Amino acid sequence: MRDSPVELSPAQFRSIGHDLVDRIADFLTSLPARPVAPDTTPHELRAKLRTDDRLPDAGADPAAIVREAAELMFDNSTFNGHPRFFGYITSSASPIGALADLLAASVNSNCGLWVASPMAAEIERQCIRWIAELIGYSPDCGGLLVSGGNMANMVCFIAAIRAQAGWNVRADGVARRRLAAYASSEVHNWLHKAVDICGLGLDAARAIPVDASLSMDLDALKKQIAEDRAAGWQPAVVIGTGGSVSTGAIDPLPELAALCAAESIWFHVDGAYGAPAAVLDDAPAALHAIAMADSVAVDPHKWLYAPLEAGCALVRRPDVLRDAFSFHPPYYHSDAHADDPPINFHEWGPQNSRSFRALKVWLTMRQVGRAGHARMIDDDIALSREMYRRAAEHAELEALTQSLSITTFRYVPPDFDGNEEYLNQLNTELLARLQRGGRVFLSNAVLGTRFALRACIVNFRTTKVGV
Hints:
Elements: H1 10-30, H2 42-49, H3 62-75, H4 95-107, H5 118-135, E1 142-146, H6 149-164, H7 169-172, E2 179-184, H8 190-197, E3 205-208, H9 218-230, E4 234-241, H10 253-263, E5 266-270, E6 295-298, H11 300-303, E7 311-315, H12 318-325, H13 358-393, E8 397-403, E9 406-411, H14 420-437, E10 443-447, E11 450-456
Parallel strand pairs: 2-3, 2-4, 4-5, 5-6
Antiparallel strand pairs: 1-7, 6-7, 8-9, 9-11, 10-11
Helix pairs in contact: 1-3, 4-13, 5-13, 6-8, 6-12
């Protein structure tokens, strides 16, 4: 028998695993009493890790180092599962999702090629269909699980550029004609990464002004498209935001869909955050236009409560994804099941080697169901509205915006003399102290020239008491 230093005996695995599960269960129970974030510095953390030490020649006791790793994480992390974490759009993660990651890592399926991951591939296929159904999108779409919103949007964007160009971009590149992409000035910066990576140039990303509700100005978009056509540009993609990262603002998606249809422009919805709210009976009406999009990005690790990493790219026509990403290297030859062709997900996105991200999403959706997701999302929105109400009632807080589950506000001292620059500096320092203090974790938004405190609730552990 080979004696491998990385192997664990069944008895060792059970002992270490049982102990770790017990520790995790205790940690989750203790979350409300812990600081949301540690008050520490990079130097202090490096000292705890002894980062200047060289890689030891001899290995260590596995039980001891797992215990040490758990304590390091429990005592020195920012907890997005904490009931008072309102910082970024990263949800508290479902416990069943954590178990799913253990199971997925143990089987270690490589989800690029069907024959290397048959059950995992079929679970991912079903999971994609369920996500599409949940948000009101065509269940016959193509799609795949990726790392997060940046990659989900980028996969859709690459597919859109290939489909819209009108020439063989794979063979000839993108230099034949200038392609333009349109989004509101509130768009997440994935778009700037996308036009850069695709070689379109940063000036291909057209920032369209927003109205008072921070939604895209439709007339400004029409004017920009007309000006670009006259100047020799090819309008290729319009991105409608279904819940902006700063304030949760929703663009006029139905009107954007109609405009894109009339102008033969690809209509993409960045629903990384807000798309799951379409499941609600009283969902914002604009979200129903997700059904008309050519592609949609959704982040299950945002408002579907899956552990990181889990993004989802959905494209109405599966052939567009294959045209954008499919290659057939000789080392991936497989003619099995020719009469019942499976999906090889390496042909639908940029990765060949792919982890089994779908399992944690699939198990969470099975545990919760459609009604459970609707209830949790509705609860988050109600809590956000309650936070806005309380901020508006507080004498020294100015409530600014509320949309979906994001509320923004700022501190205004009683002796405020109208100096906005001072007020911005004051709230910047207040945010830093709140984050260091560990009681609550907020982030910020910039609304015009105003620095705002921002609270986003995508957290099934948050309650009114916690707010």
